[in-house]
Amino acid sequence: MLSACGSKTIANNGDTVQVNYTLTLADGTVYQTTVGSQPLELVLGKGNYLPDFEKAIVGMKVGESKTITILSDDAYGAYSDNLTITIDRSQLAPGVDPKVGDKLQSTDANGQTLVVVVTAVSDTTVTLDANSPLAGKDITFKIDLLKIS
């Protein structure tokens, strides 16, 4: 029996893989996809992506497809009202004229970059939401394993 030299057939933790994926919401809306663009390259088991997403790839073969659903608690967590805040407009940087839906960036006391979404604007205040856009949502991934190295 002949086999290809240096080619892996089953994805394992520690492998670098390339996948195409399509992330859809419960209502069928496509939220994000790599299909038709650059595939996602990741090292399995490093924990840089959702654990259930990485676990789903382990054991897959090149050319295999798989669809998984990840419940909100295991994905981006529940939506938290504690992650919304209303601030005085004077706290915004000069020249910032926020509109509902705008994304603003700030740095917290630990030097971490925080992206928030403007959810309400008045003459004197701005309401900001730091929840992930996917918080509180069950999500489904269709994963196609393209390459293992």
Characterization of the model:
- By secondary structure, the chain is mainly β.
- The protein has two domains: 16-76 and 134-148, Chitinase A, domain 3 (Roll), CATH 3.10.50.40; 81-129, Thrombin, subunit H (Beta Barrel), CATH 2.40.10.330.
- It is 5% helix and 39% strand.
- The protein contains one helix and nine strands; from the N terminus they run E-E-E-H-E-E-E-E-E-E.
- The chain has one helix at 51-57; strands at 16-25, 30-33, 40-43, 65-70, 84-88, 103-107, 113-121, 125-129, 139-148.
- The strands form two sheets. Strands 1, 2, 3, 4 and 9 form a five-stranded antiparallel β-sheet that branches. The protein has a four-stranded antiparallel β-sheet with strand order 5-8-7-6, with no helix packed on it.
Task: Label this structure with key terms.
149 residues; mainly beta; Chitinase A, domain 3; Thrombin, subunit H; five-stranded antiparallel β-sheet; four-stranded antiparallel β-sheet; 9 strands; 5% helix; disordered N terminus
Question: Could you say what the CATH architecture of the largest domain is?
Answer: Roll
> Oligomeric form of this entry?
single chain
* Structure classification: mainly beta
Query: Cα-atom Rg, whole angstroms?
Result: 20 Å
Give the helix proportion (percent range): under 10%
Strand content: 35-45%
Biggest β-sheet, characterized? Answer: 5 strands, antiparallel
- Enumerate how many helices there are, as a single number: 1
Number of domains: 2
Quick rundown:
The chain is mainly β.
